[in-house]
């Protein structure tokens, strides 16, 4: 029962992050910020789960390393988009 109480708030925060990501599709920077918020919520969920089960915290360090790499790649895409198109509107970036 306690695990459900501890996990309910981060899951609600995760769902709010997903909703924010879906609704903010205009600017790439707002999309990247909501993705980082989702990653922080996932880290919080993993941290609570590992603390509850008395596991080691090595996976959280690896998860943080990958999330930092994801953030750096997102910022590099943002910089290249601003340099080529002049703005960060996601609709101006034609994928096709």
UniProtKB/TrEMBL annotation:
<keyword id="KW-1278">Translocase</keyword>
<dbReference type="GO" id="GO:0008137">
    <property type="term" value="F:NADH dehydrogenase (ubiquinone) activity"/>
</dbReference>
<keyword id="KW-0999">Mitochondrion inner membrane</keyword>
<keyword id="KW-0472">Membrane</keyword>
<dbReference type="GO" id="GO:0005743">
    <property type="term" value="C:mitochondrial inner membrane"/>
</dbReference>
<keyword id="KW-0830">Ubiquinone</keyword>
<keyword id="KW-0813">Transport</keyword>
<protein>
    <recommendedName>
        <fullName>NADH-ubiquinone oxidoreductase chain 4L</fullName>
        <ecNumber>7.1.1.2</ecNumber>
    </recommendedName>
</protein>
<keyword id="KW-0249">Electron transport</keyword>
<dbReference type="InterPro" id="IPR039428">
    <property type="entry name" value="NUOK/Mnh_C1-like"/>
</dbReference>
<keyword id="KW-1133">Transmembrane helix</keyword>
<dbReference type="InterPro" id="IPR001133">
    <property type="entry name" value="NADH_UbQ_OxRdtase_chain4L/K"/>
</dbReference>
<feature type="transmembrane region" description="Helical">
    <location>
        <begin position="58"/>
        <end position="82"/>
    </location>
</feature>
<keyword id="KW-0520">NAD</keyword>
<comment type="function">
    <text>Core subunit of the mitochondrial membrane respiratory chain NADH dehydrogenase (Complex I) that is believed to belong to the minimal assembly required for catalysis. Complex I functions in the transfer of electrons from NADH to the respiratory chain. The immediate electron acceptor for the enzyme is believed to be ubiquinone.</text>
</comment>
<keyword id="KW-0496">Mitochondrion</keyword>
<comment type="function">
    <text>Core subunit of the mitochondrial membrane respiratory chain NADH dehydrogenase (Complex I) which catalyzes electron transfer from NADH through the respiratory chain, using ubiquinone as an electron acceptor.</text>
</comment>
<dbReference type="GO" id="GO:0030964">
    <property type="term" value="C:NADH dehydrogenase complex"/>
</dbReference>
<dbReference type="Pfam" id="PF00420">
    <property type="entry name" value="Oxidored_q2"/>
</dbReference>
<dbReference type="GO" id="GO:0042773">
    <property type="term" value="P:ATP synthesis coupled electron transport"/>
</dbReference>
<keyword id="KW-0812">Transmembrane</keyword>
<keyword id="KW-0679">Respiratory chain</keyword>
<dbReference type="GO" id="GO:0016651">
    <property type="term" value="F:oxidoreductase activity, acting on NAD(P)H"/>
</dbReference>
<comment type="similarity">
    <text>Belongs to the complex I subunit 4L family.</text>
</comment>
<feature type="transmembrane region" description="Helical">
    <location>
        <begin position="35"/>
        <end position="52"/>
    </location>
</feature>
<feature type="transmembrane region" description="Helical">
    <location>
        <begin position="6"/>
        <end position="23"/>
    </location>
</feature>
